[in-house]
Amino acid sequence: MTYQEIYTKVKDALKNADGSVIDGKLAIEFDITGEGEGKFYVLVDGGKISVEPYDYVDNDARLIADADTLIKIASNRLKAETAYTKGALKIDGNVGRALEFKKLVESAAPARKPRRTKAQIEAEKAEKEAAKAAKEADKAAAKAAKEAAPKKKAAAMKKAPAKKTEDK
Questions:
Q1: In a 10 Å sphere around its CB, with 0-12 CB exposed, 13-18 middle and 19+ buried, how is residue 141 labelled?
Q2: For residue 74, which of 102, 48, 44 has the smallest C-alpha distance?
């Protein structure tokens, strides 16, 4: 992955973020290691968010990681805390301010559905099975009615007396 692709993915991940979740000014520099190596920064100032492909020396913190880790953090698929504890992310500068970046990321991410409990999963499964059984029962009833219809018609024709036409 190239530097430009990494930068673009992070910028796209933050395009719907709400800058008002950050109090004051926050400047976070991203330092990409390995493939696509380079630096860019995210600046939130007065609620306005800027993602620029430059080195930002007056930053609050610098997040250092490979491209995959930084993209996952920016798109809220990986918590920065998890990456940090696993050693995939290094933070230089004010760690507290770096963690504020999480608010920005969460404001950009679509709301996640809450996890379902085992009981909910079982209930949904039972509901689907019941719907399937009802559908099969309806098909069987329709088939039986269709098969019975010609027999009833034939029986009705045998029982009905023939009508005589009267000549005038």
A1: exposed
A2: 102
Q: Which amino acid is at 106?
A: E
- The stretches of the chain forming alpha helices (DSSP H) are 3-13, 67-74, 80-85, 95-108, 118-159
CA distance 107 to 110: 8
Helices (H), 19-58: none
Element (H, E) at 32: strand 25-33
- pTM exceeds 0.85, yes or no: no
The residue written with tokens 């395009």 in the block is 15
CB-CB contact of 101 with 28 (8 Å): yes
Q: At 90, which helix (H) or strand (E)?
A: strand 90-93
Q: What is the dihedral of CA 94, 97, 98, 104, to 10 degrees?
A: -170
Predicted confidence pLDDT, tens digits, the chain (168 residues): 899 999 898 888 888 889 899 988 999 999 999 998 999 999 999 889 999 988 878 899 999 999 999 988 888 888 888 999 999 999 999 988 888 888 888 888 665 566 778 888 899 999 999 999 999 999 988 888 888 766 666 665 666 555 555 555
